[in-house]
TrEMBL record:
GO molecular function, one term: rRNA methyltransferase activity
Domain SAM-dependent MTase RsmB/NOP-type: residue ranges: 151-396
Recorded superkingdom: Bacteria
Full protein name: 16S rRNA (cytosine(967)-C(5))-methyltransferase
Biological-process GO terms, alphabetical: regulation of DNA-templated transcription
Length: 396
């Protein structure tokens, strides 16, 4: 019988899919962890998120210890072992080492895994100091180009704090849907902030009857501020440009009490389907889903309020999207900024005179702050404990 726990075997498969086949970590994990019991699934998630987020640091350590080329399964087993030895609380060293060695079998590479992990256990690791961007990139496992940008935009201290926060688990937050009556005593324990419920501990969302009934939905505290910032009222005509999967659309509908017209535009057909399903589950009945390109959107019936939540680099959500930091490129940010400008033009064109426009991105990237009004807010993971958002409002 294998001595490897299902969580670790699952984590190895997911990590290999991410780095060898370019799979998305969260999707690959969902598929591979199906059927695991909740404890094993939770451990698999901690391992995958840890290894993928810490990839830069782990590769730096491997490069200093391994001589010669490593087989992919050996390298991945080493990452898992190092992550457990150095960064994961609550895992005994002997389990971290012996299970990683098993994962690297049957090839001869398991001996390398054993030797390196035992040496690291004995001697520890001295990571570079984070006194400059290069050291900070290795120590906190982010791409160096990104650390340099943040260093320039936010300063050294803020950047160091942000980098460290990006490797912490995200808080679990629900939005209580005011369109569905709910008995507060049925809600899981947590702290309330407006419609947000910040959970005290793990919660089986998919298995919850409240979720199925549309009484609750996961949404970060930062994301929940966006619809409120637009401030829609019942009976108004509201446009949501770039709407799928519909978290903010459904919140807008709730703030409108389900009264008025809410037009939700999404370009991708499959995602428009997901948007429609979100609206149905959350009882957002005043929504019309339109499949269209937001950058060319035109109307002869202008809107009281427009929300533009365009595609962005997502750098404010690195805690919940572990592989994103390794995918984003500087060239992509520049392309996104140009697209965001085109969408802003269309959004302004759809607004009534005196109407309100809100521009929202879930990123920390000066280049993507395309609307710079007097009225704006930014959230930062290390300062606010929630995703990093940039949100600005314009009332022409
Ligand atoms: C940041 S997400 C929107 C998140 C959404 N507002 C929410 O709260 O759930 C951006 C969305 O824009 C869509 N999108 C990308 N290009 C688009 C375009 N040219 N026109 C309309 N939608 C587009 C993407 O498919 C994605 O669903």
């Amino acid at each position: 019988m294998s001595a490897v726990s299902p969580a670790r075997a699952t984590a190895l498969r997911v990590v290999r899919r991410v780095f060898e086949q370019g799979a998305y970590a969260d999707r690959a994990l969902r598929a591979e962890a199906e059927g695991l019991d909740p404890r094993e699934r939770a451990l698999a998630k901690r391992l995958v998120f840890g290894v993928v987020q810490r990839h830069g640091t782990l590769e730096w350590i491997v490069a200093r210890h391994a001589k010669g080329r490593l087989q992919p399964e050996v390298r991945a087993a080493l990452w898992l072992g190092l992550e457990q030895l150095l960064f994961l609380d609550g895992v005994a060293d002997h389990a971290a080492i012996s299970e990683s060695v098993e994962l690297a079998k049957p090839g001869p590479g398991h001996k390398v895994v054993n030797a390196i992990l035992r040496r690291v256990q004995r001697e520890g690791i001295e990571l570079p100091a984070d006194t400059d961007p290069q050291g900070a990139a290795i120590r906190h496992s982010h791409p160096e180009w990104l650390v340099r940008r943040w260093w320039d935009e936010l300063g050294a201290d803020e950047t160091r704090a942000l980098l460290a926060a990006n490797n912490e688990p995200a808080e679990l937050v629900l939005r209580i849907n005011t369109l569905v009556p709910v008995d507060a005593s049925q809600l899981p324990p947590g702290r309330r902030e407006d419609d947000a419920l910040v959970l005290d501990g793990p919660f089986d969302l998919a298995g919850s009857p409240l979720f199925a009934a549309g009484a609750i939905t996961p949404q970060s505290r930062a994301a929940q501020r966006v619809a409120r910032f637009l401030g829609p009222r019942p009976g108004e005509r509201v446009l949501d440009l770039c709407a799928a999967p519909g978290g903010k659309t459904a919140h807008l509908a709730a703030l409108m009490g389900g009264e008025g017209d809410l037009v939700a535009v999404e370009q991708h057909t499959g995602r428009a389907g997901a948007l429609q399903r979100t609206c149905e589950r959350l009882h957002a009945r005043n929504v019309t889903v339109v499949v269209a390109d937001a950058s060319r959107f035109q109307t002869d019936r202008p809107f009281d309020r427009v929300l533009l939540d365009p595609p962005c680099s997502g750098l404010g959500t690195l805690r919940s999207h572990p592989d994103l930091r390794w995918r984003v490129t500087e060239a992509a940010i520049t392309q996104l900024a140009a697209l965001q400008d085109r969408m802003l033009q269309a959004a302004r064109g759809a607004l009534k005179p005196g109407g309100t426009l809100v521009y929202s991105t879930c990123t920390i990237s000066r280049e993507e702050e395309r609307l710079v009004g007097d009225e704006r807010f930014q959230t930062l993971p290390h300062r606010d404990g929630t995703d990093g958002f940039y949100v600005a409002r314009e009332t022409p």
